[in-house]
Design a protein that fits this description.
CATH topology of the largest domain: Naphthalene 1,2-dioxygenase Alpha Subunit, Chain A, domain 1
Number of strands: 22
Mean pLDDT: 91
Helix content: 25-40%
CATH class of the largest domain: Alpha Beta
Strand content: 15-25%
Shape: globular
Number of domains: 2
CATH architecture of the largest domain: Alpha-Beta Complex
Distance between the termini: 37 Å
Length: 452
């Protein structure tokens, strides 16, 4: 299976607009330099609440970035599809007849309704239920009811689905971007790929999805979730105290080496971040997964640094809104739904070589901990909703937030790729918002004057 990675879809922003001219006022730019002090560790709460900033995010953060779409295990034969979002743009991800994975804007070119309303499945064509325009797996318009009613200048070849111009995969994870000429996905990931491999490259068979996709809605800005997964081990002992007690044998206290962990935090150049405890006896939490795992083989394949670090317990975000937790195989996307709401979409990944009973044990463990009603997930959602709920207050909104933990501690430690800080640090959070600030103040490809 391949993914598109060339100028396959000039239909992105080069679609014919005829005499249409959008007023510049509809895309008013805001300078966000004064909202993020990454060097001093301060953040203005307007980044979570302002509607104009949110609309600028959609065109300058989400439109140019590589965004997670799906897992390759969701596509086995031509016509398999999965519907998702890139920012707030609905898209269809599907396998065409040449077994290439492609993605299209899920909007009919006639009156704009979605041409696919199912979450996933298999089909030969995508047909709009409004007026019946139908598109094939290559995005071409193949059927127009009452075709004779259109002028002679009407050509079906001009009105195919808008295609996501760049789709690429990394170890089973499929990403797409609206930018027709982005940096390659591997370059965008940079050193983050090394940390991803600790979850995705346990053996040559790769990973598969079990249990489908779980979806739920939270009150809170998407960045609250994305930054926490990039940078925040600090909240674990306080926010998840009850969960840690529940997982501790009756009559005992959580072991001190669990409560007071030491480790590292990766600070990526493109806003990525990962934090993880480091210990020679790091292990998977679920007993069946732990008993099945050949740690010696993993050390031979991945090296001691990954097995003792990001292989198991930890948290990570690929900027802007894809996050994962290696210990339970959880991957998720924080879909923005306005400045105050997000939709969480979560998958459980397991090694393809896992036997069925081990896969099921990992799936259940993920649901119990970080599923929609998981004992850890509920704590996180409550925190994000609480922060968002009070951030609209006039005085509250003007009080800056402190991101100074570990300020100045970033360095190349010689063991882990890229710059790292301490486990308890805001370094990756500062890096996340520094990259957000850069994108927000940089015209994206669709705003730049064409070269002549």
């Amino acid at each position: 299976m391949t993914a598109t990675a060339g100028p396959a879809a000039d239909r992105v922003t080069a679609t014919p607009r005829g005499a249409l001219r959008r007023p510049a006022e509809l895309a008013r730019d805001l300078d966000v330099s004064g909202l993020v002090d990454a060097e001093g560790g301060l953040l203005d709460r307007a980044v979570f609440t302002d509607g104009s900033l949110y609309r600028q995010e959609l065109r300058r953060v989400f439109a140019p970035s590589w965004l997670f779409l799906a897992h390759t295990d969701q596509f086995h034969k031509p016509g398999d599809f999965f519907t998702t979002y890139m920012g707030e743009d609905p898209v269809i991800v599907t396998m065409d007849r040449g077994r290439t994975v492609r993605a299209y804007l899920n909007s009919c070119r006639h009156r704009g309704a979605r041409v696919c309303r199912a979450d996933s499945g298999a089909t030969r064509n995508f047909t709009c239920t409004y007026h019946g325009w139908s598109y094939d797996l290559a995005g071409e318009l193949v059927s127009v009811p009452n075709r004779d009613g259109y002028p002679g200048s009407f050509r079906t070849g001009d009105w195919g689905l808008v295609e996501v111009p760049q789709v690429a995969s990394y170890r089973g994870l499929i990403f797409g971007t609206w930018n027709p000429e982005p940096v390659p996905l591997t370059e965008y990931l940079g050193d983050m790929a090394w940390y991803l491999d600790a979850m995705l490259d346990h053996d040559p068979d790769g990973t598969v999805v079990v249990g489908g996709v779980h979806k739920w809605t939270l009150d809170g800005n998407w960045k609250l979730a994305a930054e926490q997964f990039a940078t925040d081990w600090y909240h674990v002992n306080m926010s998840h105290a009850s969960a840690l007690m529940l997982l501790t044998p009756e009559g005992r206290r959580p072991r001190d080496e669990i409560v007071h962990r030491t480790g590292r935090q990766y600070v990526g150049d493109n806003g990525h971040g990962a934090g993880f405890p480091v210990h020679p006896k790091n292990r998977f939490d679920e007993r069946a997964v732990h008993d099945w795992t050949d740690y010696a083989a993993l050390r031979a394949r991945l090296g001691d640094a990954r097995v003792e670090g990001p292989l198991t317990n930890g948290h990570a975000t690929v900027f802007p809104n894809f996050s994962y937790l290696p210990v339970n195989g959880s991957i998720r996307v924080w879909h923005p739904k306005g400045p105050d709401r997000m939709e969480v979409w979560a998958w459980t990944l397991v090694d393809r070589s896992m036997p069925p009973e081990v896969r099921e044990a990992q799936r259940l463990y993920n649901l119990r901990t970080f599923g929609p009603s998981g004992i850890f997930e509920q704590d996180d959602g409550e925190n994000w909703s609480e922060v968002q709920a009070i951030s609209h207050g006039f005085i509250t909104n003007q009080v800056p937030l402190n991101y100074q933990m570990g300020l100045g501690s970033e360095r190349h430690d010689g063991t882990y790729p890229g710059r790292t800080s301490e486990l308890y640090s805001d370094a990756a959070g500062r890096g996340f918002y520094a990259h957000w600030r850069e994108l927000m103040n940089t015209p994206a490809w669709h705003e730049q004057e064409p070269t002549r």
